[in-house]
UniProtKB/TrEMBL annotation, chain A:
Signal peptide: none annotated. InterPro entries: PigQ/GPI1. The chain crosses the membrane at residues 43-61, 352-376, 449-468, 480-498, 510-527, 539-558, 570-594, 615-640, 646-669. Keywords: Membrane, Transmembrane, Transmembrane helix. It comes from Xylaria grammica. GO terms for cellular component: endoplasmic reticulum; membrane. The keyword Cell membrane does not apply. GO terms for biological process: GPI anchor biosynthetic process. It holds the Pfam family Gpi1. This is Uncharacterized protein. Residues 255-278 are annotated as: Disordered.
Automatic annotation (TrEMBL), chain B:
One of its GO terms (biological process) is GPI anchor biosynthetic process. It comes from Xylaria grammica. The chain crosses the membrane at residues 34-55, 75-92, 104-121. GO terms for cellular component: glycosylphosphatidylinositol-N-acetylglucosaminyltransferase (GPI-GnT) complex. Keywords: Membrane, Transmembrane, Transmembrane helix. It holds the Pfam family PIG-H. It comes from the Eukaryota. Residues 125-191 form the Phosphatidylinositol N-acetylglucosaminyltransferase subunit H conserved domain. Belongs to the PIGH family. Pathway: Glycolipid biosynthesis; glycosylphosphatidylinositol-anchor biosynthesis. This is Phosphatidylinositol N-acetylglucosaminyltransferase subunit H conserved domain-containing protein.
Length: 726, 227
């Protein structure tokens, strides 16, 4: 089980406990009870007695056992596992000969070494051999330091492949991805004065007092070393030159037929800007002052990054096999070791037998059941998705466009459909080396979405249990608020408008007519709402229950409930807007007549026109009439528009809460872990020392990227890969 | 007060590496160092006092009224906090908190904490490694946010390094940009300090020399002189 899943599980349990707080209070009461009855003092006594016995008997026995076992340890692990140097890189410009370096083509070498072992460097002065990749003559990456071995025998072992024995996966893949045919001996560390090294070898010296590495090479005039932490592939650490692309691949979704025109407009604008930027790029390329063809060194950077990513696994493999070379004292097993060995083999055999039984008889049944549930679940999800996507006509909106709940359900269904496939994809990487980093973003993404859903569910449980316990009260509150704001307040505002509001002189007949109309509809609506009132607690209870599917579900449901219960305001707004719009267009066309002009439809412009006297007279009278009626209509329109705007704002705030706050907050809580996970660009920290420079490679977390991805995915969430992977 | 106008510092440990730092922090002498330490200590004390004041405000609000601590459990966070409140500064903070309206006090405290955690100087740097790439870094405004934001651009992705000019208010500023291949936006070097044109030019020459070797640098300088 991955530590991340364990963390998610723990947070789930913690969330459940928070939701069911009485469990904690029970435990607390139990603890108080135990304290009162002196249980704890008795336990403490027992503990003291046991530790005394442990000190007397067990510690000496264990000491004896360890001194026996140490011999074994020594045999297998002669060198400490995490050793100093990671990578030394020498780098050269055109001329390699020392003579040519006088002409100005300086040679330089870079060394990358493992910082995790910088403390090791400080303490250890053991002589060793640097093993790694040689990218060019003077451009090397150190993978491991092998202690107490002869460089010649190491070279032979590398040639014959002894050091890469017992590899869990294919060895050819290492060489393929690291871009080199073989590993080499690159140099020596902490050698005595007597050894005569090859001229191309690097000689490194550590100082016990300083965290410093002294690197020399007879062929290079200047040397550049870069120290690095070996990224641990088991913890998903890796270095990449590009910031990690966490967004689901294929951002360019095809536009829906029912999507808004403004969205299409925005999309067009964006594409236009992109095209402009790329054109500008092209122009800059043409106007560059100095065109420099990329040197082999520039191209090698990708390979070097891969080599650094592989360093951890390769180092472990080499250290495991280092005992195979050179004269090693091979000792026969002592009696106690034999006993231990036989006991472990016996235990292993028994466990293997039980496991085989399980695999033969129980496993197929479980697997079949699991597959059937998965299929059924998938089928149900597909049917539901089809229902959600269904449109009456191609232009009419689908269900998911109308209702927030439907949208939420769709997001969840898509996630559930996507997970098994993603998981299968992730399982495949178990068959390969851990250092192959292509699937790491997928992995991180998968666990991120799992983590988010788990958190959503936890908050949902807390919220839901609260709503269920107080369903009556919540229903009362909603009823009261709705009655107060959507019925009483609206009624009073309409009756205020029917008089002369704020000294505005309205047309009283029209105001009376409109006001009476709206008041009558409100009356009818309020009687409808009253018949609904007894069912409200049940509805609230249902909403509370739905929140076990995540906190975003009840929020979406509440948003839908709000739009259903304020349907009358929406219809009032539509009616008044219609009247207003109609009156305004008539006024505008009559105004053209007033000016002696006419709108020419054929040419799409305003032409002057000779009207007859009676036409002008009737038109002017109508214009005046409508103009004097306009304030009354405007006032009613404004009233309902404001009410509608308030509701829209409320829903927007809910939606914002749903998508923005929860997820971003969760991400900020979860962020430290992510930062550890996602190594982005290779950041080089300067630690400059003459005459050669030494740098430190460290990782930069990509917080902004992640949160942007999360919000983006919460909005769109439709993984475009989903259908293509099918 | 303790800072200077932005100035350039160049370190070239080897011909293939160079670091250009533009900083408002003067070279640290002993008295300067001591005064920095003193200021940091003062800031720490002030911040903790403000936090104490905020806690006192919280304790006086209706939300913060704890039930009286249980005498059986002598060691707990609640008792430690009440002990802090009972001490000398705690009593002072309590008296102050009872006299000021909480809404106003919290706003003022937030502003004060923000000001107290601001970094006193700005330091931005550009590190050039031949054959590897260049790294821009810019110190963050707040101490709590971390040291610096860095960005590494590998050589293969550097399209060009050039000096551009733009209006900033009523003046024209010259700034160094890195055009990155395949990205819609350019990367501005020294984005906060935006040093003067002569500094930018020196950095530009240095970067060209370090990135492309000597011959191309001479070429670039010649063309630059013509332009």
């Amino acid at each position: 089980m991955h530590p991340f899943s364990i963390l998610t599980l723990a947070i789930f349990v913690a969330g459940y406990i928070t939701a069911r707080w009485d469990l904690v209070t029970r435990l607390y009461e139990l603890a108080i009870f135990a304290w009162d009855n002196g249980v704890i003092s008795r336990i403490a006594l027992g503990f003291v007695f046991l530790s005394f016995a442990f000190l007397i008997f067990l510690v000496p026995v264990q000491h004896i056992a360890r001194s026996e076992a140490d011999l074994v340890c020594f045999c297998f692990h002669l060198s400490p596992p995490s050793r100093r140097l990671g990578l030394i890189e020498e780098n050269s410009t055109l001329g390699h000969r020392p003579g040519e370096s006088l002409l100005g083509n300086s040679l330089d070498a870079e060394a990358l070494s493992n910082r995790g072992a910088l403390s090791d460097i400080v303490t250890s002065d053991l002589p060793g051999v640097l093993v790694g990749w040689r990218n060019s003559d003077l451009d090397v990456v150190v993978v491991a330091v092998l202690d107490h071995v002869d460089p010649k025998s190491v070279e032979n072992a590398l040639k014959t492949g002894i050091l890469l024995r017992n590899a869990p996966h294919s060895v050819a893949r290492i060489f393929e991805l690291c871009g080199q045919a073989s590993m080499h001996v690159l140099g020596l560390i902490n050698t005595g004065p007597g050894v005569v090294p090859d001229p191309s070898w690097v000689q490194a010296t550590t100082y016990s007092s300083k965290p410093l590495l002294r690197v020399t090479c007879t062929k290079a005039s200047t040397i550049q070393t870069i120290l690095f932490d070996r990224p641990n592939p088991l913890r998903m650490q890796y270095i990449s030159l590009n910031p990690i692309a966490l967004s689901l691949s294929g951002e360019n979704r095809t536009l829906d037929a029912g999507s808004h025109e403004s969205e299409v407009e925005d999309e067009k604008q964006e594409q236009k800007n992109k095209r402009k930027a790329s054109q500008l790029m092209e122009k800059i390329k043409q106007h560059s002052v100095v065109q420099r063809p990329p040197s082999s060194k520039d191209k090698a950077l990708v390979r070097i990054v891969n080599q650094i990513n592989w360093a951890w696994e390769l180092e472990h493999l080499l250290q495991k096999n280092v005992s195979l070379i050179g004269p090693r004292p091979k000792r026969t097993l002592s009696v106690s070791e034999r006993v231990v060995e036989q006991a472990t083999t016996m235990r292993d055999t028994a466990a293997l037998w039980v496991w085989n039984m399980i695999i033969i008889y129980v496993f197929p049944i479980i697997r079949r059941a699991f597959i059937i549930t998965l299929l059924a679940h998938r089928l149900a999800a597909e049917v539901l998705l089809l229902v959600l996507e269904w449109r009456l006509r191609p232009t009419s909106p689908a269900l998911k466009d109308i209702s927030a709940t439907a949208q939420q359900v769709e997001i969840r269904l898509l996630q559930f459909c996507y997970w098994p496939m993603q998981y299968v994809k992730l399982r495949r990487r178990k068959n390969d080396w851990d250092s192959v980093t292509t699937s790491h973003p997928d992995y991180i993404r998968f666990y991120n979405s799992l983590w988010l859903v788990a958190n959503d569910v936890i908050i949902g449980i807390a919220l839901g249990s609260y709503i269920i316990e107080n369903a009556e009260w919540v229903a009362d509150m909603i009823n009261m608020l709705l009655g107060k704001y959507t019925i009483t307040a609206l009624q009073s505002s309409i009756s205020w408008l029917m008089g002369w509001p704020a000294g505005l002189k309205l047309n009283s007949e029209l105001a009376l007519f409109l006001g009476d109309l709206f008041l009558w509809v409100i009356d009818y609506w309020s009687s409808c709402a009253q018949t609904l009132e007894p069912f409200l607690p049940q509805i609230i209870w249902f909403i509370g229950f739905s929140s076990f599917a995540g906190a975003s579900m009840p929020i979406a449901l509440f948003s839908d409930l709000l739009s259903a219960l304020t349907l009358h305001i929406y219809s009032f707004y539509l009616a008044s807007a219609r009247i207003f719009h109609w009156q305004l267009t008539i006024l505008l066309s009559l105004f053209q007549l007033f000016r002696g002009k006419k709108y020419n439809v054929l040419r799409n412009r305003v032409d002057s026109c000779d009207y007859d006297l009676d036409q002008l007279l009737v038109g002017t009278i109508l214009f005046t009439l409508l103009f004097f009626l306009l304030p009354t209509v405007i006032v009613f329109y404004l009233n309902f528009a404001l009410a509608r705007m308030g509701i829209i704002l409320l829903k927007a705030a809910q939606g914002e809460f749903n998508i923005g706050i929860i997820i971003v907050l969760l991400f900020h809580i979860a962020h430290p872990r992510k930062g550890e996970y996602t190594m982005t660009s290779a950041t080089v920290i300067g630690m400059l020392l003459t005459p050669y420079s030494q740098f430190l490679l460290s990782s930069a977390p990509c917080s902004a990227n992640i949160s942007r991805w999360e919000i983006g995915s919460a909005n769109t969430t439709c993984p475009p890969v989903y259908y293509s992977v099918l | 007060m303790l800072t200077t106008a932005p100035y350039l510092r160049i370190r070239r440990p080897s011909p293939t590496a160079a670091e250009f730092t533009v900083s408002t922090l003067p070279p640290l002498t002993m008295p300067l160092r001591l005064s920095f330490y003193a200021i940091y200590a003062l800031r720490g004390i002030l911040s903790s006092l403000i936090l104490l004041f905020l806690y006192a405000t919280w304790a006086q609000s209706p939300y913060g009224s704890f039930p009286s601590p249980n005498p059986t459990s002598s060691l707990s966070i609640a008792t430690a906090l009440s002990a802090i409140l009972a001490s000398g500064p705690g009593v002072l903070a309590t008296r102050l908190a009872s006299q000021t309206p909480p809404r106003f006090a919290i706003a003022v405290c937030a502003v004060a904490l923000y000001l107290l955690t601001r970094r006193m100087y700005t330091e931005e740097s550009l590190l050039v490694l031949r054959g590897l790439g260049i790294q821009t870094s810019s110190s963050k405004g707040n101490i709590l946010a971390g040291r610096a934001t860095t960005r590494f651009i590998p050589t293969a992705k550097i399209q060009d390094v050039l000096v551009n000019e733009a209006f900033l208010g009523f003046e024209v500023r010259h700034y160094l940009v890195v055009v990155v291949d395949g990205e819609p936006d350019v990367v501005v070097v020294f984005p906060k300090l935006l040093p003067r044109a002569d500094v930018v030019e020196r950095v530009w020459r240095g970067v060209r020399e370090c990135l492309g070797g000597r011959s191309t640098a001479r070429n670039g300088a010649m063309l630059g002189g013509k332009g």
